[in-house]
Specification:
CATH class of the largest domain: Mainly Alpha
Membrane topology: Multi-pass membrane protein
Largest sheet: 4 strands, antiparallel
CATH superfamily of the largest domain: MetI-like
Shape: elongated
CATH topology of the largest domain: MetI-like fold
Pfam families: BPD_transp_1 (PF00528), OppC_N (PF12911)
Keywords: Membrane, Transmembrane, Transmembrane helix, Transport
Strand order of the largest sheet: 1-2-3-4
Distance between the termini: 33 Å
Number of strands: 4
Family: Belongs to the binding-protein-dependent transport system permease family.
CATH architecture of the largest domain: Orthogonal Bundle
Helix content: 55-70%
Order of helices and strands: HHHHEEEEHHHHHHHHHH
Structural class: alpha+beta
Strand content: 5-15%
Number of helices: 14
Number of domains: 2
Main location: membrane
Length: 371
């Protein structure tokens, strides 16, 4: 009984002496949807970071005999009903209708193509640094098209993994720029007030009043068409950040107006702290949890912005691969009617945006652990 009582007391003591971040984590773990969203996003970012390893093929490799091939199904049971521990796909047979020129693909149930893990395949450079040829999975004979192929016979599963790296990183880089601009300009506006506050707020109101999509389209159309892909990437990121900082700056300004007359700020001034130190070491950390929530909920907007611009042909362009670029290539009635697997990138965008929203909701609830 005494041991149980001691354990109970120690648990209560841990709760009383827990830091703000520990209390936030304790409350966040109770939000199941937020945890699920965080796990899904972690999977997406890990696969995007190591997309060369997870992809069975090089994204530019063409399979001329398998144009617009539908997704292949993985099997554990063969045509005779026998179970195989190693998954496999059947070899594909192509037929061409000489009258309509329609391609049809069927499985040859007599020829199995086992799927092997950590298999040697197409060579690649991981992060453009390490030359390797090991892939997580693949086949030694036949083909493996989990998401099918497109008009040039390129594997869509590999292209979607590569696209996740571009689309997801644009959200992070764009938010990083927006975070810096929002904190600096919002902090200056709220801390100093007066004429500088008026000027910054009028600029914010002007930018917010402009419809986002037409503004993005106009700015992205101004990018030179002969720019290399890396310049276009950073150009699109900067464009998406132009509007993204405005809402964050208003939140920071409001918090600064609320906190700048608090006792701890006055104590810092009396102690001789500089204004930059007061802003960076005292004011911003006091509502850092709200900033994290705001950033988490803003990333989906960045991803949707890049996807929309690339889908309209005004953002990233081939040979760069992003979810928007892949959807742009599927922008025809043939894709919708006959090749619906070309729209898979749209499903990824929906899943990622929902996961960020769930994660943001959980962080917002955890930001105030005392409720």
């Amino acid at each position: 009984m005494k041991k149980m009582k001691k354990k109970k007391v120690s648990a209560e003591e841990k709760l009383y002496v827990a830091s703000q971040w520990q209390l936030m984590w304790r409350k966040f773990k109770k939000h199941k949807m937020a945890l699920a969203g965080g796990i899904i996003l972690a999977i997406f970012y890990i696969t995007g970071l190591f997309c060369e390893f997870f992809s069975p093929y090089n994204i530019y490799k063409r399979h001329q005999d398998y144009i617009y091939c539908p997704p292949q199904r993985m099997h554990f049971f063969d045509a005779m009903g026998r179970f195989h521990l190693r998954p496999f796909v059947y070899r594909l047979e192509k037929k061409l209708d000489l009258e309509t020129l329609e391609r049809t693909y069927s499985e040859d149930k007599t020829k199995r193509c086992p799927i092997y893990f950590f298999i040697h395949g197409d060579k690649y450079k991981l992060w453009s640094l390490f030359e390797m040829d090991i892939h997580l999975f693949g086949v030694r004979e036949g083909t493996l098209f989990l998401f099918g192929t497109e008009k040039l016979g390129r594997d869509l599963f590999s292209r979607n993994l590569y696209a996740s790296r571009i689309s997801l990183s644009i959200g992070l880089v764009g938010i990083a720029i927006s975070f810096v601009l929002g904190c600096i300009l919002g902090g200056i506006s709220g801390y100093y007030g007066g004429a500088i506050d008026t000027v910054i707020q009028r600029v914010i109101e002007f930018l917010i009043s402009i419809p986002s999509l037409p503004l993005w389209m106009a700015l992205s159309a101004a990018l030179p068409t002969d720019w290399p892909p890396i310049k276009v990437y950073f150009g699109i990121t900067i464009i998406l950040s132009i509007i993204g900082w405005c809402n964050l700056a208003r939140v920071v300004r409001g918090k600064f107006l609320e906190l700048r007359e608090e006792d701890f700020v006055m104590a810092a001034k009396i102690a001789g702290a500089s204004e930059g130190r007061i802003i960076g070491r005292h004011l911003l950390p006091s509502f850092l949890s709200y900033l994290i929530v705001s950033l988490t909920l803003s990333i989906p907007g960045m991803i949707l912005g890049e996807t929309a611009l690339s889908f309209l042909g005004l953002g990233l362009r081939s040979p760069v691969v992003s979810w928007g670029v892949l959807l742009h290539e599927a922008q025809n009635i043939h894709a919708v009617a006959l090749c619906p697997w070309l729209l898979i990138p749209g499903a990824f965008v929906i899943v990622v945006v929902l996961s960020f929203n769930f994660l943001g909701d959980g962080l917002r609830d955890a930001a105030d652990p005392y409720k």
